[in-house]
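Lesson 9: reading folded outputs for more than one chain in a single document. The general rule is that every protein is listed as its sequence immediately followed by its structure tokens, and records are never interleaved. Here is the first one.
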Amino acid sequence: MKVVSFPTSSKPYLSYSSPELKRFQLPLLHQCSLSVSLVKGSEQPLLRRLTQKQSCIKVVCYQKKEVAILEARSMDEIYDTLAERLVPTAAAASNPELKYIVGLTGPPGAGKSTLASEVVKRVKKLWPQKASSFDSQVTPPDVATVLPMDGFHLYRSQLDSMEDPKEAHARRGAPWTFSPQLLLKCLQKLRSEGSVYAPSFDHGVGDPVEDDIFVSIHHKVVIVEGNYLFLEDTVWKDISLIFDEKWFIDVDIDTAMKRVLNRHISAAGKPPNVAQWRIDYNDRPNAELVMTSKKFADLVIKSIDF
């Protein structure tokens, strides 16, 4: 099969990868109307026009699963594209209480928190322009929110009660230092009841703050962000099934670790040697584990250095 490529410009674009079709790229246009279908036995994609009410990019392929890859020349372009992707889907829901829940993951230092907050900000801005005709009950400030996984850290007192407290504190941030059971319960309640109180995490104190985040019944888009949301193990797998869409921020681990190192030194005030030890002993192993879950994403977002 030929590799069919589309010229790229300054606009963001999606590329799809598969064993037979190594990669092709599709420009993401604000009014885009391109459909690409791969037909078994054919070497060329079939192109057709879509109406504006249909999906911007539609790929139908005989392979079991295709993973879309979003790339752009700046993170701002990526934020804009993701927001424009979310608003029509969330706004089209006939039930005003229905949530569109996105799982966002990636290794430490990938930029998850920044991406989530920037996309939410843009969704709020776009909502009155593109969604007012769908749902007049929702006011612009209340349509989207972020739910971080950080609030589901185990308390320090719980780490103290473990078999090896020193190791538990040294590895804080690893999957087993969280409570996925509580996160699952929180997301299930959000799905069934439409609103929920969730804990935040106080980095100054080093512990969760209960009921500090409120996801309202009027929030249409909820971005849940954290490291381990797509893991296959135990409760994490049940968590991943909650999401309507799964995004993975893809970044070179060395680049991510440089960002985390700077965070340890500048934000946490750790001496450089202590910060580097933390990277080698905890952050990098965690990042390598997270990278194994990229294959479960619906959309892979290529991070750009910032």
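And here is the second record, again sequence then tokens.
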Amino acid sequence: MNEVLQKNAENGIFYVPKIRAIRIKNIGLWRHASLEFIDGVNIITGMTASGKSTILKCILAGISGNEALLKDLIEHKNSRIEIELIAETLDLKTGNNFAAKSVNACSIGESLYNKLLDFTNKTNKGYALLVDGIMDRFSKNMFKKALSLFQKTKNQKIIITKRYEEIANARIFECVCDNKT
């Protein structure tokens, strides 16, 4: 699992176990953060350096157990990540081996949209789609198509992006950095 996440991190798209919640303590900018995710679309948004990528790294490190993902972000001895997974179809007897798979790198545009469409058309009980920054790189037309696609499916999706458009029933988490802890 660690190798899969590290090897494919540059792709920006991951299949991960479905997440009910994440709690972060003393990691990066976050002294205390708690996010409760819903089925459907969850959007983590904010300006540059507001903590979006830290949340992404915490999710990946919490699932994989790979502390190296957080090496530059941990400043306190009492740093902690807690993740609640929804294990509807996961075989938890195998420990960290969730059989998660990452999408191969693909060009932005139609091929990326087709990868997202493929995921949303499958029954992916127990899994979520984690997308980092890709939404920022779509053309306006492709961005609207992808948002429409996300709105139609109930599979869990967690999107980390600087910009977004309103999606009915989406849960929005806005990262605001005021340089105060």
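What the second record shows: Helices lie at 2-7, 52-64, 110-121, 134-137, 140-152.
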